[in-house]
Amino acid sequence: RNHRWIQEAHMKITGFETIPISKRALLLKMFTDEGLVGYGEPLDYTHWRIVAQAVEDMAEYLVGKDPFQIEDHWQTFFRSTYSRSMPIILGALSGIEMAMWDVMGKALGVPVWKLLGGSVRDRVRVYCGIGGDTPEGCAESARKRAEEGFTAVKMGVAAKPVRYVDTPKAVEEMVARVAGVREVVGDEVDIAVDLHRRFSPTMSILVVKELEPFKLLFAEEPCHPENTEALINLSRSTTTPIATGERHLTRWGFREVIEQRACAVLQPDIRHVGGISEIRKIANLAEVYDLALAPHNAAGALGVVASVQAMATVPNFLICEGGSSLGQGLFREPLTFKDGFIEL
After folding, report:
1. Is 73 noted as a catalytic residue in this protein?
2. Would the pLDDT of 325 be above 80?
3. Residue 16 forms beta bridges with which residues?
4. Strand pairing partners for 12?
5. What mean pLDDT value characterizes the chain?
6. CA-to-CA distance for 91 and 97, rounded, in angstroms?
7. Which is catalytic among the residues 73, 248, 272, 296?
8. Catalytically annotated residue among 3, 196, 248, 272
């Protein structure tokens, strides 16, 4: 064992490759001189070519370095970056960081969740999105997902753009969409709604209040996530848990939201928040304030895998987006999904 550890300690990074595998997902491969390949998923939804270039730029520093020095490399990039709130840089860094953990796990023969201190659960609850332009369409989509075994779904609350203060008719249509889903899935399936940050603070309060009878799991991004004061006012005005965070970066980006308790549920995306270590640090900070984590996953399956590994170790975990990306066609063995959970 000692001899093996000495060999692994001298492992070196030899190069990187990025491969677009879908409209949103970019696959990263990190190569080492020991023949081990680490995988990661960097993220920027619309500018993957720029993220790929950022990976190439970072490779100039990383080639020849020890892939086990994850924290050291992360801090080096983060603290040497001119702006620490650049999603392109952090997206690239997130994918690289995942690949380093992957290599370490492969070298030592253990899953990443064991390297992180062990798990606090043996499966991770996930939800999936549903579609539909009408209340009937939403209800049918939800019915199919419930039959597949999902115990939670998320839906868009508005089928068209919403005015700053919209009409009673518009509000009735939003309520009807959620009501149709609740009628079909009953009270044993959780429903979350996504307002896609498109609502004004005034309209957010009005609509979320109208949706209270449906006992939602959470209302996601009801208004612009950088308007912390608006989130606070909304959270104080409703019994519905408010969620946000898919566009926040690193623990510093989450600090004000957490300290002000501007929401009940945080939604960091492991692909651009800083990676596996950083999402756990965000979770640690949130735990002190009794806030829950529900990681955002609207890209590829590799990010879902990384989220599952991290959330297996997080006590204040609520649920994870990702039921739609189980790795079919990408992984030799797709993720194991059963009764609304992904098995470790």
Report:
1. no
2. no
3. 30
4. none
5. 94
6. 10
7. 296
8. 196
Annotated catalytic residue 296 = yes
Instruction: Count CB atoms within 10 A of the CB of residue 212.
Output: 12
Encode pLDDT of 282-300 as tens digits: 999 999 999 999 999 988 9
Rounded to two decimals, the pTM is 0.94
Strands in 37-40's sheet, in edge-to-edge order, are: 13-20, 26-32, 37-40
DSSP-derived pairing of the beta strands 190-194 and 152-156: parallel
Q: Which two tokens stand for residue 215?
A: 């006992």
Task: Say what the pLDDT of residue 9 is.
Answer: 60
